[in-house]
Amino acid sequence: MQTLTNRAKPVDRRPMTVLEKLYLPAIAKGMGITLKHFFKKKVTIQYPEEKRPFSPVFRGLHILNRDEEGRERCTACGLCAVACPAEAITMEAAERMEGEENLYREEKYAAKYEINMLRCIFCGLCEEACPKDAIYLSETFAPANFKREGFIYGKNDLLIPDPKKEPEQYQKALGSRVKKS
Ligand code: SF4
Ligand code: SF4
């Protein structure tokens, strides 16, 4: 029969010799292969002690960004929610009151902002749609949870630490992928 590729290997159906019946050469050959792998570079990673570096295009958990003065950048325009193909984002807008200029950058802000991580496909379209550089996908991922509600991330979970009050945590959360404000 004509084969489609040249990879077909004919089966050797000759009766086994005495030496072959002892299986010793086959065992020695197998042990040789195992021994060879002892001296090769290990491909396994000892997680969680050792962590594999993320790809530069990795898209992880969202961050709601602040400006350099610590004010929330999001103006609750809703563009991210409209751009989201999974309809994972919901928000409620509120008007900034007098005296709140140090909290919110724009006259309108998101009083409530939620992302359902069970719906999110981490496509990054929300980040691309945002005109205020207010949302980024970071280099971390949503931790496992036993409850569905645990995957609904509210504003408090998403908001980056205040750069004035917690500069170290802010820098850590910012990571290398997130644009600086
Ligand atoms: S990453 Fe994609 S799916 Fe997830 S919230 Fe943003 S736009 Fe929606
Ligand atoms: S994150 Fe950006 S796109 Fe989404 S509501 Fe806020 S300002 Fe608008």
TrEMBL record:
[4Fe-4S] cluster 2 binds at C84, C120, C123, C126. SUPFAM superfamilies: 4Fe-4S ferredoxins. InterPro entries: 4Fe4S_Fe-S-bd (IPR017896), 4Fe4S_Fe_S_CS (IPR017900), NADH_quinone_OxRdtase_chainI (IPR010226). Gene3D superfamilies: 3.30.70.3270. The keyword Secreted does not apply. Its EC number is 7.1.1.-. Signal peptide: none annotated. Binds 2 [4Fe-4S] clusters per subunit. Its main location: membrane. Keywords: 4Fe-4S, Cell membrane, Iron, Iron-sulfur, Membrane, Metal-binding, NAD, Quinone, Repeat, Translocase, Ubiquinone. NDH-1 is composed of 14 different subunits. Subunits NuoA, H, J, K, L, M, N constitute the membrane sector of the complex. HAMAP family: NDH1_NuoI. This is NADH-quinone oxidoreductase subunit I. The gene is nuoI.
